[in-house]
Amino acid sequence: MKIATVGRGNIGGGLADRWERAGHEVTRLGKDGGDVSDADVVLIAVPGNATADALEKVQGIEGKTVIDATNLFGIEPPPGFASNAEFIKSKTNGPTVKSFNLNFARPRWGGSYGEMEDFARAVDDQRWPRLHALRGYVDEDRANLLHQDKHLDEALAASDRACAQGDAADFLTTRARIKMARGDSAGAIADLDRADAILPGDVLAVLPLRAWARARTGDWVLAGTDLLTVLRVDPTNSDAREIFDTVVRGLVYQGWVIFKGGARDRALRIYDLAANLAPTDADVLQRREWVVIGKEGGDPLQAIANTEAAVKASPDDFRAVQQLDYLLSRQREFQRVLLLWDDYLSRHPDDGPAHMERASTLHLLGRDGDARAEAAKACDLGVSEGCVRARVLSVQR
Q1: Regarding the domain delimited by 2-98, which CATH topology (the fold level of the hierarchy) does it fall under?
Q2: What count of other Cβ atoms lies within 10 Å of the Cβ of residue 295?
């Protein structure tokens, strides 16, 4: 399906990434607008008070099916309309549906703590056992406020009481934040591992915080893995972006130390992770090239001959083919490299990293249209580096 997204924030950008990975063709529009004539569906995901301005800059939306993901918290809809959805429908004269409006909403207690506790105690635990955790939200609310006021000992005690009401991802995440503030990164990780088991893959709270905690302990690979999971779904996540450079630099350092220690394959896995996080980072790409070439970095012709022999002996060894690619590319033998990947992919058509390497070769040959399609294929197969490269090549068209 062809989908156009208007807005590049948490909802617009996050859904665009998911839809692309699901195989849909997505056109991303920002504040400058654009043409959606080819789209089957249009998502409007801009601030509620910016809807009218956004629609003015979008062409080809007449008659389109539109998903309205805007919110009107504390502001009025456009004059003469009961909602943004009604306003959008008046502009498009097509089907309009409202969705994704509560994705980032979270209920919070109101009133005094006494009223909160009375309400929680009044719940019939026998009839509604899952509501037993309501009592924990009283102490979680206390813990958050105490944390904000930097009363960390009292905040931890309150969050301990909340967690004693039962395993709830909210309580564990709150306690992990307090433990982080107290310098207990290992304790925070233990809580976040439990939270992840309860609410797997929570990219809004659990995984960004666990990436922070893992980075603090110097576990760059696990920190990078959590960070990549978050950014694939929510590229603008503020917590993830705040530690992005630190984690990438940590991976670069750790990969180099491991390579120098003789563990080339492990170092390559670390640099592959770094490249998926930062596919345009020159330091990451250069060091990965050095590690791929490894001990064959001496006489270039002899290195090529040695590696060709290795590929001939093991034609399905991705690392051997990749090494020959990099050696040949240094000699600008791009056509030979392309034939190399054509042969490999004829037997391994679902190898995402191989499609990524082929995309790079096509780009070096000046075939950017083919390179874009190949990078998109790598993206579809789960290679984040391919998603970024496909977008860059689309912009350069």
Answers
A1: Rossmann fold (3.40.50)
A2: 8
Task: Judge whether 305 and 324 are in contact, CB under 8 Å.
Answer: no
pLDDT over 90 percentage in the chain: 60
Distances (CA, A) of 127 to 115, 119, 131, 135, 285: 22, 15, 9, 16, 58
Does residue 296 come out as left (phi exceeding 0), alpha (psi in the -120 to 50 range) or beta?
Answer: alpha
User: What whole-number distance in Å separates Cα of residue 275 and Cα of residue 284?
Assistant: 6
User: pTM score, two decimals?
Assistant: 0.63
Average pLDDT over residues 367-384: 91
Q: Which backbone phi and psi does 364 adopt, to 5 degrees?
A: -65, -25
Domain at 297-395, CATH from 1.25.40.10, 2.40.37.10, 3.40.50.1390, 1.20.1250.20: 1.25.40.10
205 by Cβ neighbours in 10 Å (0-12 / 13-18 / 19+) ranks as buried
Token pair recorded at residue 327: 């050696």
State mean pLDDT over 36-61. Answer: 90
Asked whether the beta carbons of 72 and 83 are under 8 A apart, the reply is yes
pLDDT for 187: 97
